[in-house]
Write the structure tokens for this entry.
Amino acid sequence: MEMAKQYVFDIESLKHDDLVTFMTLDRQQIAIYHKGQAQLPAGDYQLLPDAQALNDFVKDAVLISFNGHQYDDYVLAPMLADATPEDVRAVSDKIIHSHGQTFRLHLPRIANIDLDTHADDHRWSLKSLESQMGLNIEETAIDFNREAPLTADELAAEVHYNINDVKATAAVYAMRRPNYFDANAALIKAFKLPRTAYNWGQGALVRNVLVPAKEPAIPKWPAYETHYCGEQMLNRLPEIVRTAYQAYFNGAAFPKVIPVELGRCELDFSLGGLHGVTARSQYQDVQRVDIQSMYPTLIIQTNALGDAATQRYAAIYKQRLQLKATNPNDPLNTALKLVLNRTSGLMDARFEQKVANPLGMRSLRIIGQAVTYELAAELYHAGYQLLNVNTDGLYFTGAGNGTAQLLIANWEQRYHFTTAQQHYQRLIQKDVNNYFTLDDDQQIAVHGGDVGRYFGFNYERASQLPAIIDRAIVDHLLFDQPLETILSERRSELFWFAFNVKVAKNYQFLTDADGTHYQKVDRLFAVTDGKLYRQENTDGKSAKIRSLPESAAIENANLESVAPNTLALDLPTYQALITKHLKGWQKN
């Protein structure tokens, strides 16, 4: 979904220089604003010569940054007001040295998508993502605390560095755009939210769709209510779980986990849900039953959002079913799915106010456990073997007594659910969250952090360790490929072999035995002719980096520009690392 103007941007604030670089999403056009003594170097970019030009450029634009909501937005405000670099730097210092303290700073009325705010895992800096994506990793050589203004050569170097970071931010945005940011934009357009809604997280977007700003909060349930479809659903749970919930309603603590066995599948009941997995890891001829929109169905059936919001929610549910059937690639389809799926989390989010119904949502989770357990138990007692169970579906295998389809259909009718079913030739699992499948069309699907990078870089499964581990686990277990073959076949693609290293918070740089200092973030490879690298601080204290091989080489250039044979990869080291990670998958 296109908007009038979208620019990726990044700011550098020095004591006597301001620098802002903007780039279009296709990374073809650049605009630069600089305020300082030196002249910008000649280049293929648009010059923004003063604050007025800067204001005109960002007017009505949607800006995209990494960590902009914590830094760039606030630093941009005085620049737009034509402040001196010294005054801009004072704002920058206040942010950097606040250490999480609350402070008041002017915030410009701009729409800014902050990629870091929209990340579920905030461990990864932009530099770390550059490493994992195989991009150029470059840290500035300029001391940001220098007293002198930048010289012309230093300014040229800083522009180069700034552009590199903006390109990386654009690459991250492009990767997440189709399944995430286009959905946000579709919601903003469909529900006529303000342009500044691009600043909001998805929870805020969903909140404003369900309960517009001037409407009161949804009503909260005063107590737990576990009746559903005319039945007390606690009675559908195993006795030990039912007793624990009854005590919990009266103020007792709920056990962290209550295990219940259905054959070889151990189900774990907890306040967070229901999960179960078998002891064995590999199965053939497997059936998946996916419970479609469990919590949306429960929310609508129980009016859990109150009359007005539940009516809106039900209308969104209906519209989404229509789009899914007629135009599944429409970004609005993904956007409406977002509303449906994020609402349950908002209902008992710690600081939520408008869509808060904590007892209601916890009641629905208990009902979800009960109906899922009932389906699982019926299949088990009909002779089927349960393999993997959670509150949005289950995997099972075996011939049973031939009644699986009838049991599922009766369950759907009894509780107003629909299911989608799929057959898989193979299911291989480590635990309830880490597994992969091979379907009848020979398509592989991977789930979980252990194998999430099987197809390449995965923003949601970022890791310090080489992606070849994920690839090898699947290919070795699914196709019985020898590890030596997997490593040899991927040898020419350096992406798979990179260790992505960032020094810990109390250290300032990477160092080798010769005392040479490197960047805080580096991409390393296990090689036969390398060095031992450690993290070190300015006092000379050093420490080993976990999982880093003792013989390694640094390569921070864009991997597409690096000839694979320039690195003497130590394949036995990678094989040993893969073997270590395979142990958790190779059960009886």
Q: What stands out?
A: DSSP finds 15 helices and 23 strands in the chain. The chain has three domains: 6-200, 227-447, 459-582. The first helix runs from residue 51 to 58.
